[in-house]
Structures are given as structure tokens and as C-alpha cells.
Amino acid sequence: xxxxxxxxxxxxxxxxxxxxxxxxxxxxxxxxxxxxxxxxxxxxxxxxxxxxxxxxxxxxxxxxxxxxxxxxxxxxxxxxxxxxxxxxxxxxxxxxxxxxxxxxxxxxxxxxxxxxxxxxxxxxxxxxxxxxxxxxxxxxxxxxxxxxxxxxxxxxxxxxxxxxxxxxxxxxxxxxxxxxxxxxxxxxxxxxxxxxxxxxxxxxxxxxxxxxxxxxxxxxxxxx
Length: 224
What we know:
It is found in: Nucleus. One of its GO terms (biological process) is positive regulation of transcription by RNA polymerase II. This is Xylanolytic transcriptional activator regulatory domain-containing protein. The radius of gyration is 18 Å and the shape is globular. The longest helix is centred in the C-terminal third of the chain and has 25 residues, at 153-177. Helices cover 57% and strands 0% of the residues. By secondary structure, it is mainly α.
């Protein structure tokens, strides 16, 4: 779908009230959903941390025990789930006669159900996985080394993984749009995640970050 422009046929209006119930009739079966999730992992896992697999799949199992109840009880996870499925459909469906991209129905439903984060309390990492927001990572200090005895090591590793995902996406998007970068490399002291037992994934992440740094220097020289 790269290089194509689609009309999603959506006016941008979200659901009218929190009581509006999400439409579960359009969701794929459990087995097909697993296939879509695995396709996202296959295409994105080396460079992007779009979801924490252990946490996400645990909630996936809980959701399929009581879909309607869980979607209402965990609205942010359900939005996240819809976005992952939308990505999966985009990867799996090779061609379509529709003027909308594969998975757009799931994407639009996710956007309509997106909560107002002004008052919505949730795990900051989970919020970033939905929004991929650089500002959230900076406000939480994820661009730093995050040294503190009060921080759980597993949480620190999640933050590092998420920060570098956001960093890569931000560098790529501002380059394509011809915009200045959101944070200079000199201001970043965050370490790479440990990723034990996954040396190839860690090396791929480092290579991609190096590429983004070079890309940023080229873009900055052109904007100067």
C-alpha cells in the first residue's frame, strides 16, 4: 500500500458517548485473529514494538472468554487489539478492489472508540503503543537512562523498547513530511533494551536507529 492514498469514508466523529457499545460482529474468529497477530509480528517485530506479547496475548485469551464484557472493561486494550488486527489485514490481504485499504474498517472502529486521554488513566507504555507519541515518552523521561531504585527493571526494559520504537517512527515520519525532528540525538541518553536471547533482534534495532540518525542529519542539512 506504500505510495497510495485512500479515502477511509470516515468523517472523524467518534462515538457519541462512553455507553455506546463496540461492534463485535466485524471481528475475525479467534484463529484468524491469531494469524493476523502473527503476521504483524513477522513484519514488524524486528524494528517496532507495537505490543508486549506476553501481556497482549494474556488479555487476548481473557477477551475471547467474554468478548463483550472484556471490551467494555478494557477499552484501551480493545482499541489496541483493533489496530493490531488492522495492521495484520493490511499485511495479509495482497489486493482488493475496494477503494479502502484492507483492515480500514477495524482501524476506523478503533479511532471511534479511542478514549479521551485528558482524563483517561492508564499505563503510559500502553498509551504510547496506541498513539506512538514522542511527547509521552519525553514527559515520562524515557529518553534518559531511567536510573532509579523505585523503578522496576521489567518496566524500565518496556520503556526502553517502546522509546526506540517511537524514535524510529518519529524520525521516519518527519523525514517524509519534511519537518524538523522532535528531539535531538544529543538529548537522548536512553539505553537499548536488553532483549535477552535475541541478539539478532537487538542488532537489527541498533542498525535501524543508526540509519535514522543518518537520515536526521541529512534532513537537518536540507532544512538549514
